[in-house]
């Protein structure tokens, strides 16, 4: 295997596969052959689906909780187990082995010390809703996952609950949905019931950079580390927790709390845009999630601008028709679309000339990661952040914008261009949601 494909694995040379179960000869009699299913011993591992996308597997009953709770939470793949085949994804239900020989003993010690043990794993390859369009691979992955989880929980023989997020929704790490569901399942409140300082989350998606000398590739994301930060838990990688290795440097793609701290609300310049003409067109240019609609409602709508938005009107032609009607009736117009390319902007410049009104542009310069964060928190953080009930955009919305984008120039026919660097403006409750990690 080439060094560039190596994962962060343990340094042991011992076989860490679980021992094969010994087969016992069982005498088949008429009595046990015809035993009704209702009288057979119940399965120790049970599965059910919540909210259409969250698979929950549980070994025996939930533990009884009567005092301040300590939670030990783990990622699944490349944290508790890894594939025997050395493939990135398991080939079947039996394609697993312990990540390290110490994993079972460490978990059993946690149980003895009174910890509630849970597993929280992203499993986007798994399909929970079979349809004619569902790839067979998705259902096969579901069966493989159930098989591996069942084998692992039976081997541990501990009251563990496994949560598997199968969609890109509120349950997918680093978003807090799985944690909040776990609290509901155990009848816990985050404030008061949890001993956060004694909790731990262990996962391999930690934002670590590649180590070329050791032939180790970079982590695929930082979602486990960010998830732990979102739910206020100490974090360790498998190497740190099971092997006692030192903490390695890491990089986050986007840190919302640091972004807000670098742009205090008190320093926001609210006078960077002013109306210059009785009737004019203002074109907004920027990626989805760059803050265009928020800018309109907070700055342009109070100045009397009418809003034209293609998400609502569906076509550019309809937008231009409505804009022309507004201008003809003496109202200024803000065009709240992405307007990424020169050809699109030229159509609006042409309309302004036809209507004989000035046209200006506000250029939103937020980075791609910031825009994706804004879109995700808006869609998933609840009504507090999403008064227009917008759904989360696909990745293509951001990559498509980047492919079409050409920097706007005054020479295209604009009276002026105002640069707008995104600054968070909202209540403390909204800020508390915004500064969490929402994208991996």
UniProtKB/TrEMBL annotation:
Spans annotated as Disordered: 1-22
GO molecular function: ATP-dependent polydeoxyribonucleotide 5'-hydroxyl-kinase activity; double-stranded DNA binding; polynucleotide 3'-phosphatase activity
Alphabetized Pfam families for the sequence: AAA_33, PNK3P
GO cellular component terms attached to this protein's record: nucleus
GO terms of biological process kind: base-excision repair; single strand break repair
Highest taxon of the lineage: Eukaryota
Gene3D superfamilies: HAD superfamily/HAD-like (3.40.50.1000), P-loop containing nucleotide triphosphate hydrolases (3.40.50.300)
PANTHER family noted in UniProt: BIFUNCTIONAL POLYNUCLEOTIDE PHOSPHATASE/KINASE, BIFUNCTIONAL POLYNUCLEOTIDE PHOSPHATASE_KINASE
Protein name as annotated: PNK FHA domain-containing protein
Species this protein is from: Baudoinia panamericana (strain UAMH 10762) (Angels' share fungus)
Organism lineage: Eukaryota, Fungi, Dikarya, Ascomycota, Pezizomycotina
């Amino acid at each position: 295997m080439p060094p560039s494909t190596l994962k962060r694995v343990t340094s042991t040379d011992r076989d860490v596969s679980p021992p094969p179960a010994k087969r016992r000869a069982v005498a088949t009699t008429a009595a046990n052959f015809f035993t009704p299913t209702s009288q057979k011993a119940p399965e120790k591992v049970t599965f059910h689906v919540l909210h259409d996308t969250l698979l929950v597997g549980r070994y025996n009953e939930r533990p009884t909780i009567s005092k301040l709770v300590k939670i030990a939470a783990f990622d699944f793949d490349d944290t508790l187990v890894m594939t025997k085949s050395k493939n990135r994804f398991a080939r079947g239900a039996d394609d697993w082995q312990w990540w390290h020989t110490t994993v079972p003993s460490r978990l059993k010690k946690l149980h003895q010390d009174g910890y509630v043990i849970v597993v929280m794993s992203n499993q986007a390859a798994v399909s929970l809703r079979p349809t004619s369009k569902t790839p067979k691979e998705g259902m096969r992955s579901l069966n493989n996952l159930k098989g591996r989880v069942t084998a692992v929980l039976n081997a541990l023989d501990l009251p563990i609950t496994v949560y598997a997020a199968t969609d890109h929704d509120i349950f997918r790490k680093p978003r807090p949905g799985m944690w909040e569901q776990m609290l509901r399942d155990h009848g816990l409140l985050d404030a008061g019931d949890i001993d956060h300082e004694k909790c731990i989350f262990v996962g391999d998606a930690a934002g670590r950079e590649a180590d070329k000398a050791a032939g180790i590739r970079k982590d695929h994301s930082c979602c486990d580390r960010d998830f732990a930060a979102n739910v206020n838990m100490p974090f360790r990688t498998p190497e740190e927790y099971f092997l006692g290795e030192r903490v390695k440097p890491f990089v986050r793609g986007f840190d919302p709390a640091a972004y807000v701290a670098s742009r205090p609300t008190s320093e926001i310049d609210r006078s960077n845009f002013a109306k210059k003409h009785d009737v004019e067109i203002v074109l907004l240019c920027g990626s989805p999630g760059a803050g265009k609609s928020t800018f309109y409602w907070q700055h342009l709508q109070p100045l009397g601008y009418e809003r034209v938005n293609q998400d609502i009107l569906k076509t550019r032609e309809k937008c231009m028709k409505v804009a022309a009607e507004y201008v003809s009736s003496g109202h200024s117009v803000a065009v709240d679309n992405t307007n990424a390319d020169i050809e699109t902007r030229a159509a609006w410049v042409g309309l302004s000339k036809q209507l004989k009104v000035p046209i200006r542009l506000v250029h939103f310069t937020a980075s791609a990661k910031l825009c994706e964060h804004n879109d995700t928190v808006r869609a998933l953080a609840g009504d507090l952040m999403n008064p227009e009930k917008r759904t989360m955009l696909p990745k293509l919305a951001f990559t498509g914008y980047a492919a079409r984008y050409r920097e706007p120039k005054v020479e295209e026919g604009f009276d002026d261009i105002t640069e707008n660097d995104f600054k968070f403006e909202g209540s403390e409750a909204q800020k508390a949601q915004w500064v969490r990690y929402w994208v991996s």
